[in-house]
Amino acid sequence: MNINNSKIVCFGEVLWDIFPIGSRAGGAPFNVGYNLGKMGVDVQMISKIGNDKLGNQLLNQIKSWNISIDFIQIDNNKPTGTVIAKFDEHGEAHYDIVNNVAWDHIEITAEQNELIRYSDAFVFGSLIARNEESRNTLLKLIELSKFRVFDVNFRPPFIDFDLIKTLLHKAHLVKMNKAELRTIIEYLGEDYIDEDQSIKYIQRHFDLNEIVLTKGSKGARYFVGDKSYNFSAVSIEVNDTVGSGDSFLAGFLSKRIQDKSPEEIMKEAVSLGAFITSKSGACPDYTYEEFTSFKEEHYGQTI
């Protein structure tokens, strides 16, 4: 399946999530790209890995998923990115996102410029901008994109609010969760009253037309101009929530770039988010037909 040759570029971290039970390929923008590919979108990933064993393993994994590696750079000096997950005595996971790795040093190229100019959307988060080189590349590429999608995706301690403001000003569509909404409002010096007032304030302050607010089991909301659309979550048995927000965004964009109705866009988003949550990991093996069957079976069953 191919969606009318639509192309989306995802920019940012590609890495190994290292759990006590094993490692998984990940990184929020990569998770978005993986699931976009499953939806039939032509995806390109701009990132960087190290010239090391982990990097070779990552490239082989990505190629095995039939995802292009044409714009994944190789760094001879910095290691492939890793995130170390540890669990405390209460079973809570804590993550150490290793700093100063290959994806912190993505270089800009003429080929990237052409890619961005002719793409339908450019997806990025805040974590990729934690270090100067990738941040500068991101800020240059953003200017070339006709539709800029900012997935806020806060990852402490790598939160620079001045940078967040810059990215919010440049974005056309922003996705955030409820906690991120509250944090942004507080940073802007406003009192959080409710979702509607907070979102409207951010829309006015940053001249933002579209904001997607995800709320886990409470569903999601889509704000377009002065209109808003509310959608319940799909009722499923949760396997794990790793990458659920990334898959939600992939489902959303797969319909948004086709200019579908808000109802169609959000139905795809909440369905794909739930589908991935019912499986293990952010990038499980599945077919579009399996997802379609799931959507038809579960979409009417809401929380």
SSE topology string = EEEHEHEEEHEHEHEHHEEEHHH
Kindly provide the radius of gyration, computed on alpha-carbon positions and rounded to a whole number of angstroms. Answer: 18 Å
Number of strands: 13
Fraction in beta strands: 15-25%
Class by alpha and beta content: alpha/beta
Q: What is the overall pLDDT average?
A: 91
Q: Helix content range of the residues, please?
A: 25-40%
Question: Can you put this structure into words, describing what you see?
Answer:
Helices cover 38% and strands 23% of the residues. With 303 residues, it is α/β, with parallel strands linked by helices. The strands form two sheets. The chain has a nine-stranded mixed β-sheet with strand order 5-4-1-8-9-10-11-12-13, sandwiched between helices. The protein has a four-stranded mixed β-sheet with strand order 3-2-6-7. Helix 9 crosses helix 10. The longest helix has 16 residues. It starts with 6 loop residues before the first strand and ends in a 5-residue tail after the last helix.
Provide a quick synopsis of the model.
By secondary structure, the chain is an alpha/beta fold. Helices cover 38% and strands 23% of the residues.
